[in-house]
């Protein structure tokens, strides 16, 4: 029984490796089981505008996220209700693009569907746009047939097909299918070898697979094709830094840190550059400078809740300032009440403080916002662990150590 395993862990002050491994194994199985059932029946949820903008900013060769051309728009202004202005053609896809520019994201799937059902001239674009928003709301099952169809349309623009392969490859990675993911990225590189996005996103995949040298090669190719790609340059630096840091090589670490300085100097408007540099500085115990980097991120992207969470965690590590840390994480939730990372972090801190009921509440909020079944399984594990500790406290009067 999991409660008994938890009781043993508490009695052993979480010091016995075997008991901890058993508890972890049981938690993972429980989490997987619950997530499978819950994710199937979850309500699809549109993420925040900041999340959507960040997602699209990771693509530079993406036709569907480009603004409407002058000839595609009507001269009329949008009406006062914020509805999309009439586009020159009666096209669901062009209306969806107009809604996208207005950040009226909830209407994009339905307008794209109109274009698809009418078999309009923008059918391939509409399929890709609809699939992208299905992915954003966490509905991979609905996205896949649309992506499959675009990929098989040999007469479609190669940029659309490559983009669909990148997105399907990323989806496979999220579903822990690295072989299929790699196949899609390789196919994208074959059909559109000059597409910088292929190498950028494949580089990120290689990092997840711990293939750092190959990741760096991909980032280099992305930079060769797009020298102005700030994201690829920042992520290349971070890949080199992780390789040096885990290999315990002081000289390459210094070189990577210098690389970050060069990136933020060259691209002072790239928030991701400062954020990745801040993570490396935190590893190096340079907390004050890391804090400054997070402040730069906040100046550039005041609506990015994730930065406030990272800055909050830094306060805990740097100054053991629990109040300041929680204040910043609360601010993240205030800015974006759909930020699952903020709820998860808040829950983890409340567990450490012994506020288990509050922790369970936070984990449940994060579960409802999870963007993949895998992420949801992990959150259920955290929630079940907190719940087991409350039950053990009631049953045996045992309480785990707190902060």
From TrEMBL:
Q: Which GO terms describe its molecular function?
A: mitochondrion targeting sequence binding; protein transmembrane transporter activity
Q: Which Gene3D superfamilies match?
A: Tetratricopeptide repeat domain
Residue intervals passing through the bilayer: none
Cell compartments where the protein resides:
Mitochondrion outer membrane
Key words of the record: Membrane, Mitochondrion, Mitochondrion outer membrane, Repeat, TPR repeat, Transmembrane, Transmembrane helix
How does it sit in the bilayer? Single-pass membrane protein
- Give GO cellular component annotations, separated by semicolons: mitochondrial outer membrane
What family name appears in the similarity comment? Belongs to the Tom70 family.
This one is known as TOM70 protein
Q: State the organism of origin.
A: Ramphastos sulfuratus
Q: Could you tell me the gene encoding this protein?
A: Tomm70
């Amino acid at each position: 029984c999991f409660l008994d395993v938890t009781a043993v862990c508490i009695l052993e002050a979480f010091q016995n490796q075997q008991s901890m491994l058993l508890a972890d194994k049981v938690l993972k199985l429980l989490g997987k089981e619950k997530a499978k059932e819950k994710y199937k029946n979850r309500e699809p949820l549109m993420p925040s505008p900041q999340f959507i903008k960040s997602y699209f900013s990771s693509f530079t060769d993406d036709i569907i996220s480009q603004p409407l051309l002058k000839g595609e728009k009507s001269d009329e202004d949008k009406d006062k209700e914020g509805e999309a202005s009439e586009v020159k053609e009666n096209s669901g896809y062009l209306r969806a693009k107009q809604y996208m520019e207005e950040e009226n994201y909830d209407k994009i799937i339905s307008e794209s569907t109109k274009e698809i059902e009418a078999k309009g001239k923008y059918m391939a674009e509409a399929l890709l746009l609809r699939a992208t928003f299905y992915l954003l709301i966490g509905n991979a099952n609905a996205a896949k047939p649309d992506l499959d169809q675009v990929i098989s349309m040999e007469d479609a623009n190669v940029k659309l097909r490559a983009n669909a392969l990148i997105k399907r490859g990323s989806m496979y990675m999220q579903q822990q299918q690295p072989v299929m993911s790699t196949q899609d990225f390789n196919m994208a590189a074959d059909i559109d070898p000059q597409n910088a996005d292929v190498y950028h996103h494949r580089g990120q995949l290689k990092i997840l697979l711990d293939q750092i040298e190959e990741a760096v090669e991909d980032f280099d190719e992305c930079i060769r094709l797009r020298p102005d790609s700030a994201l690829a340059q920042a992520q290349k630096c971070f890949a080199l830094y992780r390789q040096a840091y885990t290999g315990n090589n002081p000289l390459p670490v210094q070189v990577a840190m210098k690389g970050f300085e060069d990136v933020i100097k060259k691209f002072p408007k790239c928030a991701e550059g400062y954020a990745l540099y801040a993570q490396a500085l935190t590893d190096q115990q340079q907390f004050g400078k890391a804090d400054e980097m997070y402040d730069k991120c906040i100046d550039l992207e005041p609506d990015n809740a994730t930065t406030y969470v990272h800055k909050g965690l830094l306060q805990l590590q740097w100054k053991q300032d629990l109040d300041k840390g929680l204040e910043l994480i609360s601010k993240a939730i205030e800015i974006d009440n759909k930020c699952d990372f903020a709820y998860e972090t808040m829950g983890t801190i409340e567990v450490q403080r012994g506020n288990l009921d509050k922790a369970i509440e936070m984990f449940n909020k994060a579960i409802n916002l999870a963007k993949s079944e895998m992420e949801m399984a992990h959150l259920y594990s955290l929630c079940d662990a907190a719940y087991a500790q409350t039950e053990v406290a009631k049953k045996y009067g045992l309480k785990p150590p707190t902060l």
